[in-house]
Amino acid sequence: MNRTYPVSEQVPVQKLVSFNKHESKHIINSFINTCPKNEQEVIDYFKSKNRNSLEAKKFYNFYESIGWKLNGKNPITNWQACARNWMLKADEIKRELKSNSPSQNRDNLHTSKDKNYGEPL
Description:
- This protein is mainly α and 121 residues long.
- The chain has a domain at 38-99.
- It is built from four helices and two strands, in the order αααββα.
- Strand 1 (69-70) and strand 2 (74-75) form a beta hairpin.
- Helix 2 packs across helix 3.
- The model has no long low-confidence stretch (mean pLDDT 79).
């Protein structure tokens, strides 16, 4: 028997997508559990790490504004680990700013203070 079909009589193929409602709810619930409950929880965590509340508020507002996702697509699975990375990066930025900023007492022109403007060049 020939099981080929003419072009006009092709059998439609249904694309099967596995979707389990229970699994979907679990993913949503686990996402909710990985986000902090509120800003105060983040502030308390930052204070436990000897950080100020302003830095905690910046962290909370930033990630709250992007939906607690990394790179705009992957949900954060552990916000405390993300906060620790935030703290490390903040320390790194402070060190860079400190080392790159010119000193207030530094003379960038390398000239002396006692100049005689009466002398010709």
